[in-house]
Amino acid sequence: MRLKVFSDPPVLMKTGETPADRLRRCLHLQGTDGERYVEGRGVPASVASSAGVLFDPDLAGRPAVVSLLCDCDGTMLALHGRYLHASSRQEKMCTFGGAGGAFCIGGWRRDRIILVEGLFDALSLAVCGYPSVATVGRWAPWLPEACAGREVWIAFDAGRAGDASASFFQTRLHKSQSRRLRPPTRCQDWNSALVKLGRERVAQWVGGKGRGGEGMTEVYVSTDVEVDGPIPGPHSMLSFGCAAYLRDRTLLGTFSANLEPLPGASGHPATMAWWEEHPEAWLACHQDRRPPGEVMAHFVRWLEKLPGKPVFVGYPAAFDFMFVYWYLMRFVGESPFSFSALDIKTMAMVLLKKEYRKSTKGNFPKRWVPELRHTHQALDDALEQGEIFCNMMAEIRGTG
After folding, report:
1. pTM above the 0.90 mark?
2. Which end of the chain has fewer CB atoms at under 10 Å, N or C?
3. Fold annotation for 19-212
4. Where are the domains of the chain?
């Protein structure tokens, strides 16, 4: 793979100014449209100003926020501008000066270097407490020596183009220990991640990469459903609840909702007979019911904000996942869980060394089972199930 080659002009077109000439015409961000622009992208103006970002009200005819592109010694090579506004036919950026520069926020002074693509990727990671170096899509021939002997995280954009660029850099940074660091799930780049997820979530994601290697940090979403029949479609999911956990048992948050029944669906006689024996639970799952499409869209947004790849956890997973997956595909058209789920009963079979059908909750050791009542209310049961799962995981890891 070859990286796209930019032919940056040595001087600003039309005016003939060098980067140093133009720099003298730039303004501090405070009180300018540039300040409002960076803060509109989730970056405090104080962070951008500390990183050396300035405002140019007329960079080749349009206002832009600008930054220096330097070598690893801090020598200015070029000036890079990001326009505040750009139509479909206009360039979003303007770069001129010498080749081989990068935008750095404290990155060269660290044993670990994080390489990102754009100016706002670097600013977004700075907001989250991580220094980085933005290549602005360009290769600098001095990079291999500057990165030699260091750990390098190549944190380019998500997608094929970002992966291809990362591969280009990895093959050339042969004197470094490099790894690919992708933005959080369902985020194209680090600025969209900051805006969508917030500083704390993005910081957790980057920190998780450092502890967990190249694979995505997993978030285990213990899920319980309440339904009125054996399969979705002819019958409805009345309610579902989820509890999201990290591997260390940290409870990140919960989600629950009651749903309106599917049009044309009806309760199965056997299931309805069971509900007659649990009137309190039946009443609970009929409070504040909402349209399925609204609920599932909200559920996907909740999953997207988790600091890692969601893993569906159920008991038995085949039943609960069947309903949740069907509803996701029917009303949203996608599943953040993909099409797989983790089954607690299968885990128990392995840990207990019993046959599958004997690996039931009644045979679970007391150390796994929390002192929570099984209420047949979705969120209560998801929390109980989640604690069981976390206790089993701790035993597998030898930390129980």
Report:
1. no
2. N
3. Dna Topoisomerase Vi A Subunit; Chain: A, domain 2 (3.40.1360)
4. 19-212, 218-397
